[in-house]
Amino acid sequence: MLVPLALAVLWLMAVVRRRPHFHARGGEGAVAELHHALDRLGYEFPARTTLSELERRLKVTAGPGAARYVWLLRQQRYARPGTGAPPTGRDRRALRRALTEGGGPLARLRGLIALPPHARFTAD
Protein backbone atom coordinates (compact mmCIF):
# COMPACT_ATOMS: atom_id res chain seq x y z
CA MET A 1 0.00 0.00 0.00
CA LEU A 2 2.80 2.45 0.84
CA VAL A 3 4.84 1.68 -2.27
CA PRO A 4 2.20 2.86 -4.79
CA LEU A 5 1.55 5.95 -2.69
CA ALA A 6 5.27 6.73 -2.49
CA LEU A 7 5.61 6.26 -6.25
CA ALA A 8 2.66 8.58 -6.88
CA VAL A 9 4.18 11.27 -4.63
CA LEU A 10 7.58 10.96 -6.33
CA TRP A 11 5.94 11.18 -9.76
CA LEU A 12 3.97 14.28 -8.74
CA MET A 13 7.10 15.95 -7.36
CA ALA A 14 8.96 15.24 -10.62
CA VAL A 15 6.14 16.70 -12.70
CA VAL A 16 5.98 19.87 -10.61
CA ARG A 17 9.78 20.26 -10.72
CA ARG A 18 9.73 20.06 -14.54
CA ARG A 19 7.34 23.00 -14.78
CA PRO A 20 9.02 26.02 -16.28
CA HIS A 21 9.99 28.94 -14.10
CA PHE A 22 8.74 32.25 -15.43
CA HIS A 23 11.07 35.18 -14.80
CA ALA A 24 9.78 38.60 -15.80
CA ARG A 25 8.99 42.05 -14.52
CA GLY A 26 5.59 43.59 -13.85
CA GLY A 27 3.54 40.42 -13.66
CA GLU A 28 4.68 39.12 -17.05
CA GLY A 29 5.78 35.89 -15.41
CA ALA A 30 2.35 35.41 -13.86
CA VAL A 31 0.69 36.00 -17.23
CA ALA A 32 2.99 33.47 -18.91
CA GLU A 33 2.28 30.98 -16.12
CA LEU A 34 -1.48 31.50 -16.56
CA HIS A 35 -1.25 30.91 -20.32
CA HIS A 36 0.80 27.77 -19.71
CA ALA A 37 -1.68 26.49 -17.09
CA LEU A 38 -4.70 27.17 -19.30
CA ASP A 39 -3.04 25.27 -22.12
CA ARG A 40 -2.29 22.31 -19.82
CA LEU A 41 -5.87 22.28 -18.56
CA GLY A 42 -7.34 22.25 -22.08
CA TYR A 43 -8.57 25.83 -22.34
CA GLU A 44 -8.02 27.04 -25.88
CA PHE A 45 -7.70 30.68 -26.83
CA PRO A 46 -6.04 32.53 -29.72
CA ALA A 47 -2.41 33.44 -29.14
CA ARG A 48 -3.12 37.16 -29.46
CA THR A 49 -5.87 37.18 -26.82
CA THR A 50 -5.58 40.22 -24.56
CA LEU A 51 -5.95 39.96 -20.80
CA SER A 52 -9.25 41.82 -21.04
CA GLU A 53 -10.59 39.33 -23.61
CA LEU A 54 -9.28 36.42 -21.56
CA GLU A 55 -11.00 37.81 -18.47
CA ARG A 56 -14.35 38.01 -20.32
CA ARG A 57 -13.90 34.55 -21.80
CA LEU A 58 -13.03 32.92 -18.47
CA LYS A 59 -15.92 34.66 -16.73
CA VAL A 60 -18.27 32.81 -19.09
CA THR A 61 -16.46 29.45 -19.25
CA ALA A 62 -14.97 29.11 -15.76
CA GLY A 63 -16.75 31.66 -13.59
CA PRO A 64 -15.98 34.79 -11.59
CA GLY A 65 -13.08 33.29 -9.61
CA ALA A 66 -11.05 32.77 -12.77
CA ALA A 67 -12.05 36.15 -14.17
CA ARG A 68 -11.00 37.91 -10.94
CA TYR A 69 -7.51 36.37 -11.15
CA VAL A 70 -7.06 37.69 -14.70
CA TRP A 71 -8.48 41.07 -13.65
CA LEU A 72 -5.87 41.26 -10.86
CA LEU A 73 -3.10 40.42 -13.32
CA ARG A 74 -4.39 43.10 -15.67
CA GLN A 75 -4.53 45.66 -12.85
CA GLN A 76 -1.00 44.74 -11.78
CA ARG A 77 0.33 45.06 -15.30
CA TYR A 78 -1.26 48.41 -16.17
CA ALA A 79 -1.27 50.13 -12.78
CA ARG A 80 1.21 52.83 -11.89
CA PRO A 81 4.44 51.24 -10.66
CA GLY A 82 4.10 50.06 -7.08
CA THR A 83 0.30 50.32 -6.95
CA GLY A 84 -0.93 47.08 -8.56
CA ALA A 85 -1.41 44.33 -6.00
CA PRO A 86 -0.55 40.80 -7.19
CA PRO A 87 -3.10 37.99 -6.80
CA THR A 88 -3.08 36.30 -3.40
CA GLY A 89 -2.99 32.60 -2.57
CA ARG A 90 -6.76 32.77 -2.09
CA ASP A 91 -7.17 34.20 -5.61
CA ARG A 92 -4.93 31.44 -6.96
CA ARG A 93 -7.01 28.75 -5.21
CA ALA A 94 -10.21 30.28 -6.59
CA LEU A 95 -8.73 30.23 -10.10
CA ARG A 96 -7.63 26.60 -9.76
CA ARG A 97 -11.02 25.60 -8.35
CA ALA A 98 -12.89 27.43 -11.13
CA LEU A 99 -10.77 25.88 -13.88
CA THR A 100 -11.20 22.32 -12.57
CA GLU A 101 -14.82 22.51 -11.35
CA GLY A 102 -16.84 19.43 -12.17
CA GLY A 103 -13.90 17.47 -13.51
CA GLY A 104 -13.49 15.14 -10.56
CA PRO A 105 -10.36 14.22 -8.61
CA LEU A 106 -8.14 13.83 -11.70
CA ALA A 107 -9.02 17.32 -12.89
CA ARG A 108 -8.20 18.68 -9.43
CA LEU A 109 -4.83 16.90 -9.54
CA ARG A 110 -4.12 18.32 -13.01
CA GLY A 111 -5.05 21.74 -11.63
CA LEU A 112 -2.58 21.35 -8.78
CA ILE A 113 0.15 20.41 -11.22
CA ALA A 114 -0.64 23.27 -13.62
CA LEU A 115 -1.15 25.85 -10.83
CA PRO A 116 0.55 24.67 -7.65
CA PRO A 117 -0.23 26.51 -4.41
CA HIS A 118 2.90 28.64 -4.71
CA ALA A 119 3.63 30.54 -7.89
CA ARG A 120 6.72 29.42 -9.79
CA PHE A 121 7.66 32.86 -11.06
CA THR A 122 9.75 35.64 -9.61
CA ALA A 123 9.98 39.32 -10.29
CA ASP A 124 13.48 40.30 -11.36
**CA distance, first residue to last residue:** 44 Å
Number of helices: 6
Q: Which regions contain 5 or more consecutive residues with pLDDT less than 50?
A: 21-25
Q: Could you tell me the number of beta strands?
A: 2
**Main β-sheet description:** 2 strands, parallel
Average predicted local confidence, pLDDT: 81
Element-level helix/strand string: HEHHHHHE
Secondary structure elements and pairings:
Elements: H1 2-18, E1 22-23, H2 28-40, H3 51-61, H4 64-78, H5 89-100, H6 104-114, E2 121-122
Parallel strand pairs: 1-2
Helix pairs in contact: 3-4, 4-5, 5-6
What features would you describe in this structure?
The protein has 124 residues and is mainly α. It is 64% helix and 3% strand. It is built from 6 helices and 2 strands. A two-stranded parallel ribbon has the order 1-2. The longest helix has 17 residues, at 2-18. The chain is globular, with a radius of gyration of 15 Å.
Compose a concise summary of this entry.
It is built from 6 helices and 2 strands; from the N terminus they run H-E-H-H-H-H-H-E. The protein has 124 residues and is mainly alpha-helical.
What keyword list fits this structure?
mainly alpha, 124 residues, single chain
